[in-house]
Amino acid sequence: MAKRWNEDDDDLDIDLEFDRVEYMKKEINKGKSTLVAVAIAPIFALVSMSVFNLTMHSLISLVTGMLGLIFLKPIYDILNIDIDKIDKKGWVKNGGVYFLTLLAVWIILMNPPFGDFADPQLNDVWVEVDINDNGEWIPVEDVNTTDVEEGKSYPIRIVAEITDNDAINENSVKINFENEGWKNMTKIDTHLYAFDPDITIESGTHNYEFRIRMEDMKGNSNSVNVDHKFTLEAS
User: Fold this and answer.
1) For the chain, which terminal residue's Cβ has fewer other Cβ atoms within 10 angstroms, N or C?
2) From CA 215, how far away is CA 121, in angstroms rounded?
3) What angle do CA 53, 55, 59 make, to 5 degrees?
4) How far apart, in Å, do the first and last CA atoms of the chain sit?
5) Fold of 121-232
């Protein structure tokens, strides 16, 4: 049960004094220290990216960026920010804000339009067939089996889906089909490139090995081996 207030109680020693001015000074001081941490993080993100360009090592780059924390105290002194009024929580907060800002700017600089360090990717490969020999290419798995005649040969082509976070150098997309040497693949749609091996197949299961290579406009390249097995079914 709660104790009733008794005016005769003199056990309670409550200090109702509150220095509003001192409190505001402390809060402003803490706010300035946080803003400084946010302000210098992008500068060291640029330094970090310079290190990455030299080493191509993301961990070394980020560690270099974190060295900016060492400069917080000297900068606080220059800006007359009273570090004695920054408690342990304040230092942890400023360090966390600095790291998150550094990381955000670093990620932005790593991607277009500022930078592109990712290799282009081969997302998918499939075979298309021209059932009616009229230039209408259909993925093998979408072919109606009633349209396929036993013993009849059909032309095929290889289609690859290639993506990049910037832009692909279209002239760089090539295929080495069945070790016959590198040949150009033709862009047929957004992200799609095709190669006509000038062969025909009959119904049944087929397997082809080839290698596809590509390069983006920044010079990042990739090369992928493909062992593709598919079946052209006839009813």
Assistant:
1) N
2) 9
3) 100
4) 87
5) Immunoglobulin-like (2.60.40)
